Amino acid sequence: MTLHIVHLEDEKDLLEGMKFVLEELEPDAYVIQFAKADSILDYIDAHADEISLFILDIRVPGPLNGFDVARHIRKIGCTAAIIVTSAYEPPSPQLIQELDIHYFRKPWDLPETVLKMLAYVKN
Fold first, then answer.
1. Mean predicted confidence (pLDDT) in 91-114
2. pLDDT tops 60 at residue 5
3. Distance between alpha carbon 38 and the CA centroid of its chain, in Å?
4. Among the four residues 15, 17, 39, 118, which has the most C-beta atoms within 10 Å?
5. Residue 48 and residue 121: Cα distance in Å, rounded?
6. How far is CA 27 from CA 3, 20, 107, 119, in A?
7. Three-class SS of residue 61?
8. Does residue 5 sit in helix, strand or coil?
9. Are 33 and 7 a contacting pair, CB within 8 Å?
């Protein structure tokens, strides 16, 4: 099965680094990236049943944040793995459970962190 990964991140260096590492570790993966949360919803609605993994930065430009996107994903019934990331305060245990998400605090060791993220899809 080819992994279909959706990545939301507003920092250009992290977008590029994540894509590079994902493609190195999973050469057959389809990776699509967004810098703003409001631009991601239409894509999710059209492809929810194909997506394997969401990697969502919490704080991004625009009216929506990564948690809003995670809520939308669950609201439409998508059961794909969701990982939220931030350099700020982690989500509450209640929110983690409610949205069935995983949290990774920034900064990352990119290759090591990506391997851990991919494990949520492969298990």
1. 92
2. yes
3. 14
4. 118
5. 15
6. 10, 10, 24, 16
7. coil
8. strand
9. yes
Q: Which residue has the tokens 């507003």?
A: 10
- Kindly state which CATH superfamily the domain 4-107 is placed in: Response regulator (3.40.50.2300)
Whether 14 contacts 34, CB under 8 Å: no
φ/ψ of 65, rounded to 5, equals -120, 180
Inform me whether the pLDDT recorded for 50 exceeds 60: yes
Residue pair 8/57 in contact by the 8 Å Cβ criterion: yes
- Banded pLDDT at 108 (limits 50, 70, 90): confident
Q: Is the pTM of this model over 0.90?
A: yes
Give the containing element (helix H, strand E) for 110: helix 110-122
Q: So what's the pLDDT on residue 30? A: 96
Every domain of the chain and the residues it spans = 4-107
